[in-house]
Write the structure tokens for this entry.
Amino acid sequence: MKRSVVVFSGGQDSTTCLIQSLQQYDETHCVTFDYGQRHSKEIEVARELALKLGVHTHSILNVTMLNALAVSSLTRDNVPMPSYDPAATNIPNTFVPGRNILFLTLASIYSYQVDAEAVITGVCETDFSGYPDCRDEFVQALNRAVILGMARDVRFETPLMRLNKAETWALADYWKSMTLVREETLTCYNGVKGDGCNKCIACHLRSRGLNAYLNDRNGVMAAMKRKSSLLF
């Protein structure tokens, strides 16, 4: 029996990964992390979506120690949320240091418990907002470390790693779930469900990708399939 663990936030990317996992694995388990994030609504959205999509298990883990250690606009109400700035070159203050290190490590431990062969995450280095822990190099390095540390083969899967946001929308559409992803996920850094606030970095990337896909569905779908040839 094939089993997976999806790192699940209830946002566009992790929901798209979850939908795909449900098609490709006999059992899909979800892990959502409560790290004292600025908008706890994303945990509610993740809970609702996991129930609606029928995952095998959905665990919400308390890791609020991350909030105490990592200073970010996503963990501190007194740190202003930045708006999208096309000229910005620095890592934005929405970056939560160590978040993906912690999440992927804990999801790997959970995979040991449920005997899952894969840990799936929606990180992407194409539209990654400058986050260093969304790079393929990082994910592969941590995967090797986890295998060594647990003496167990577990595969980190990153279905969106090479896709841009338009192609991520195409993937959701491929699985007949574009409406669900558009209306019921929460990607916005200001906590607005669906199309979001249209001001933050996350909303800019999401809406730009959606418009690009809607303007060239066939071309973007074909590009997505070429990049994701091993998935079909």
